[in-house]
């Protein structure tokens, strides 16, 4: 299965509900439910406060979000000889394509409309990998004339932001606004979108870990890569990694541009997702312990291994009570 370590959009989702108080789970923030999604062995899976729930075999989960009481997870599954874009609503699978190769790297729900984004390789553009989005299962091409991939989505009212990458003669990090490519940065990729009260952040890679806003451009580390973002009030958290001199990646995040390393005890590690619960910072990803990839999360810098073999690709958080 194809490995893409910075496709994800990391969802910092806080859903208010009138639930009664429950007993806090050790290692997790009281009053919150923490969901991670990714891969465990050959299964697309998610972890609810550390408890693993498998979704489908020969599959991987890339993104996760909550809408009201419904849990949505997007990904892909091998069906026959091809990977097929799919999503799960409360564990029930919805297949987005029946032909070609496709992946659903991001998902968001707005006004009961389900948006998935990713790529599609098949007719009518059989020789090209096309960036696409699906609205309620109907596919729309974003890059009909070039190769492309859509990695992150954010729906704000009537405005649909999608970030990703196109390539051909040259690589380009791109943003589509309501389906129209609005701007790009040569030789890069945009992997995550974050919205603050005053700005829109597009996180990705352009000669290193980078973010763009509508007014500025910032390189966080020339040897780094960035693939996730969480905005909490005035604070902006960006997750990713930094490569050492041997090319091994080491998990980290940046808070308001300040570099915060997470672990150097393993040959390689990566942050794929980041979110905030109260005053706690959750970063999900993987470590390579010398024999296998292990899905892990860090809470305020303290690492916990999750069950199985694989990685965390996404995180979302539900607020249960004050």
Protein described:
The protein is mainly beta. The protein has a single domain (32-319), classed as TolB, C-terminal domain (Neuraminidase, 6 Propeller), CATH 2.120.10.30. 0% of the residues lie in helices and 66% in strands. It has strands at 32-40, 43-48, 51-57, 59-67, 70-79, 82-89, 92-95, 101-110, 113-122, 125-135, 138-141, 147-156, 159-167, 172-177, 180-186, 189-195, 200-205, 209-212, 217-221, 224-232, 235-243, 249-255, 258-261, 268-277, 280-288, 293-299, 302-305, 310-319. Strands 3-2-1-28 form a four-stranded antiparallel β-sheet, with no helix packed on it. A four-stranded antiparallel β-sheet has the order 4-5-6-7, with no helix packed on it. It is globular and about 50 Å long.
Key terms:
mainly beta, globular, 28 strands, 66% strand, four-stranded antiparallel sheet, 322 residues, Neuraminidase
In summary, what is this structure?
With 322 residues, the chain is mostly beta strands. Helices cover 0% and strands 66% of the residues.
Shape: globular
- CATH top level? Mainly Beta
Unreliable sequence segments: 1-24
Number of strand elements: 28
Instruction: Report the mean per-residue pLDDT as an integer.
Output: 90
Question: Which SSEs are present, and which pair or pack?
Answer:
Elements: E1 32-40, E2 43-48, E3 51-57, E4 59-67, E5 70-79, E6 82-89, E7 92-95, E8 101-110, E9 113-122, E10 125-135, E11 138-141, E12 147-156, E13 159-167, E14 172-177, E15 180-186, E16 189-195, E17 200-205, E18 209-212, E19 217-221, E20 224-232, E21 235-243, E22 249-255, E23 258-261, E24 268-277, E25 280-288, E26 293-299, E27 302-305, E28 310-319
């Amino acid at each position: 299965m194809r490995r893409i370590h910075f496709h994800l959009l990391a969802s910092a989702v806080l859903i208010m509900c009138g639930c009664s108080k429950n007993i806090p789970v050790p290692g997790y923030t009281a009053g919150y439910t923490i969901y991670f999604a990714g891969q465990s062995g050959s299964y697309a899976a998610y972890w609810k406060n550390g408890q693993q729930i498998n979704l489908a075999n020969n599959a991987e989960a890339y993104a996760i979000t909550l809408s009201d009481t419904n849990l949505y997870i997007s990904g892909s599954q091998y069906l026959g000889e091809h990977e097929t874009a799919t999503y799960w609503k409360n564990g029930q699978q919805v297949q987005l394509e029946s032909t070609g190769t496709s992946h659903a790297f991001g998902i968001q729900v707005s006004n009961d409309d389900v948006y998935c984004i990713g790529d599609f390789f098949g007719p009518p553009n059989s020789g090209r990998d096309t960036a696409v989005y699906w609205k309620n299962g109907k596919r729309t091409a974003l890059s009909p004339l070039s190769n492309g991939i859509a990695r992150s989505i954010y729906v704000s009212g009537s405005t649909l932001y999608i970030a990703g990458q196109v390539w051909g003669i040259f690589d380009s990090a791109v943003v589509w606004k309501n389906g129209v490519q609005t701007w790009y940065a040569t030789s890069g990729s945009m992997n995550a979108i974050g919205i603050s009260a005053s700005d829109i952040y597009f996180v990705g890679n352009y000669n290193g870990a980078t973010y763009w806003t509508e007014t500025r451009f910032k390189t966080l580390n020339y040897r780094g890569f960035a693939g996730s973002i969480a905005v909490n009030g005035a604070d902006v958290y960006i997750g990713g990694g930094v490569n050492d001199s041997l090319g091994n990646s080491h998990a980290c995040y940046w808070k308001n541009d300040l570099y915060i390393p997470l672990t150097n005890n393993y040959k390689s590690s990566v942050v794929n997702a980041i979110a905030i619960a109260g005053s706690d910072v959750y970063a999900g990803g993987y470590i390579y312990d010398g024999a296998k990839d292990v899905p892990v999360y860090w809470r305020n810098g303290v690492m916990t291994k999750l069950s199985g073999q694989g990685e965390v690709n996404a995180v979302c958080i539900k607020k249960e009570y004050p």
